Amino acid sequence: MSKEAASALQPSTAVLTVGERRHIAAMTLVRDHIGKNFRPGQHLPGGKAMALQLGLPLLHVATVFKALNSSGELYVSAGVHGPRVLMPDELHPDDIAFDAAVRDRIASEHYRVGQALPTGLLGVEFGLESDQVVRAFRHLVRDGLVHHDTTGPHGKGYYVARGSSPDPAATPQLLAASRP
Known about the structure:
This protein is mainly α and 180 residues long. Helices cover 50% and strands 7% of the residues.
């Protein structure tokens, strides 16, 4: 379970309303159902079918699907198939172009080590909402190219941690060119 999804399931120290308790119960029920009955890569039934199957209001199931899509656990598309369970290390399909562009910009030194990344502009450029931008940075953070800093020199945000490593496919050509 991702940190985002886990925090959505954890009640705060404040007293919860009846509606909030119902929402948390629905989230737990849907997540448990998905975890027990579907493998990564599998498509889920649509929200309406799952709502009927679990006896929940469609709004609750739709909200859970949206939260799991934002955390990178599901891929919810407008296509004919229902939501798809993502593999644990799978890049969310909506984040592929974002991820490739940021990697390319770091490699070309358009973004330099220590630089704060323009998360809002990147979100607009790639059509991602703020929670989706956080999801899109997951693999860049995991790979050590970017880190999140709450007290960075330009405030809270994502910063370039290091330049990218050389392309492994280019390494043999570089070695061969350097030999006498």
